[in-house]
Every structure is written in structure tokens, then in C-alpha cells.
Write a structure and sequence with these properties.
Blueprint (H helix, E strand, L loop, with lengths): L1 E3 L1 H9 L4 H8 L3 H8 L6 H11 L3 H4 L1 E3 L8
Antiparallel strand pairs: 1-2
Length: 73
């Protein structure tokens, strides 16, 4: 299982917001943005800051994807 932030990147495109603008809006560090870009885990407080800045919910910015699926499943 892994976390995908593709929904966040799509939402930014839909709202015409650049990643650097999100950093300022949500008070994120460049380190945190890099973690998001790599699909790494970030804490719930960070996700909450993003949701407040973008007026959305967790489901709007992330999803859990199954990385262990094989062709027979």
C-alpha cells in the first residue's frame, strides 16, 4: 500500500495554483513539498494545513493505492 497525491496535483491545476503558492498558502516547507512530490508520508497536521488552504478534504488531495496487486488478483 502507498499514498498517492495525484489528486492534490490535479486540484492545484484545476484551481490554477502553483506548488510554490501552496507552500505559502499552507505554511509548508520546501522539504515537505519534496516529500509530497515523492509520494512519501507526511503527518496529518500537514495534510490538514493543505486542506484548510485549499478548502477541501483529505479525499480531495490523496488516496491509498494498492501496490501489491498481481495480474491474477
Amino acid at each position: 500500500m502507498a499514498i498517492s497525491y495525484k489528486r492534490l496535483w490535479k486540484l492545484l491545476i484545476d484551481k490554477d495554483i502553483k506548488k510554490k503558492d501552496l507552500v505559502q498558502m499552507a505554511g509548508l516547507s520546501s522539504y515537505t513539498l519534496n516529500k509530497l512530490n515523492k509520494g512519501e508520508n507526511v503527518n496529518a497536521e500537514t495534510l490538514m494545513k493543505i486542506c484548510v488552504a485549499l478548502d477541501c478534504s483529505f479525499d480531495d488531495i490523496m488516496e491509498i493505492v494498492n501496490t501489491n496487486m498481481t495480474d491474477g488478483e
